[in-house]
């Protein structure tokens, strides 16, 4: 067998910070591929291009929301029906948050999100909707004054947390639970500080709270103090008071 060191360095190609060797070397140069007017459009679906899309979504979100006043993110089901008690509670909550000096941020969709945006708009406050590209999404509801549509859930989640001083969580489904537990994890791990989380509707959230206490905490999967990371209420006024108190307003 020959000495590998005697064979010299392997053939390699430097593409910015990326090094390609042997059969992974690509023909041509990056500039050549950029300036070539021929070829298919599959490149827009490659992972490096997705990174640029992700970056652009952060830039657009930061730019649109940077000058927001203090805000509260309100979550809840897109399936909440207008005229229902839950919808009416969302409208009252949106109004009360504006009266307390907050902008209202929602996912921008129908149902509970629309209700909170409607309340904020009717109170002459700032009504924000952060939409997401979904195959069945209906677009931003008509009560949104500042709207941003995102392709990526994780970029949207960053905006919910970065530009809000707290969460109020109305009854909702899997998406609402996702946002709730993301927020709880960020507070528990101290990635964010002074971030109140209020669950609105004791009848709806009671089973979840019981499970957290009687199963998760009881089996040592979380600490008893983690149950203090959130509050449960049935009163709009108390929900607003809780977020106002914890953010020092």
Automatic annotation (TrEMBL):
Database matches in Pfam families: Lysine_decarbox (PF03641)
Organism: Streptomyces lasiicapitis
Bilayer-spanning residue ranges: none
Domain of life: Bacteria
UniProt EC number: 3.2.2.n1
Family per similarity comment: Belongs to the LOG family.
NCBIfam families, A to Z: Rossman fold protein, TIGR00730 family (TIGR00730)
Keyword set includes Hydrolase: yes
Keywords recorded for this protein, A-Z: Cytokinin biosynthesis, Hydrolase
Protein name: Cytokinin riboside 5'-monophosphate phosphoribohydrolase
InterPro entries recorded: LOG, LOG_fam, LOG_family_nucleotidases
Region Disordered: start-end pairs: 1-32
PANTHER family (UniProt xref): CYTOKININ RIBOSIDE 5'-MONOPHOSPHATE PHOSPHORIBOHYDROLASE (PTHR43393:SF2)
Known catalytic reactions: 9-ribosyl-trans-zeatin 5'-phosphate + H2O = trans-zeatin + D-ribose 5-phosphate; N(6)-(dimethylallyl)adenosine 5'-phosphate + H2O = N(6)-dimethylallyladenine + D-ribose 5-phosphate
């Amino acid at each position: 067998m020959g000495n590998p060191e005697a064979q010299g360095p392997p053939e390699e190609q430097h593409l910015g910070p990326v090094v390609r060797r042997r059969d992974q070397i690509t023909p041509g140069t990056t500039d050549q591929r950029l300036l070539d007017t021929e070829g298919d459009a599959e490149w827009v679906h490659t992972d490096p291009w997705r990174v640029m899309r992700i970056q652009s979504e952060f830039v657009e979100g930061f730019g649109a929301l940077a000058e927001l006043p203090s805000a509260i993110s309100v979550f809840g089901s897109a399936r909440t029906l207008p005229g229902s008690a839950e919808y009416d509670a969302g409208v009252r909550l949106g109004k009360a948050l504006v009266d307390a000096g907050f902008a209202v941020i929602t996912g921008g969709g129908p149902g509970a999100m629309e209700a909170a945006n409607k309340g904020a708009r009717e109170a002459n406050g700032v009504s924000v909707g952060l939409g997401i590209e979904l195959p069945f999404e209906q677009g931003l509801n008509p009560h949104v004054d500042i709207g941003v549509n995102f392709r990526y859930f994780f970029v949207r989640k960053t905006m919910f947390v970065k530009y809000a001083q707290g969460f109020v969580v109305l009854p909702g489904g899997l998406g609402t639970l996702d946002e709730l537990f993301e927020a709880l994890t960020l507070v528990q791990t101290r990635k964010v500080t002074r971030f109140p989380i209020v669950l609105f509707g004791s009848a709806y959230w009671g089973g979840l709270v019981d499970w957290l206490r009687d199963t998760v905490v009881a089996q040592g999967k979380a600490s008893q103090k983690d149950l203090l990371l959130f509050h449960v209420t049935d009163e709009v006024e108390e929900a607003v008071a809780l977020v106002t108190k914890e953010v020092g307003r």
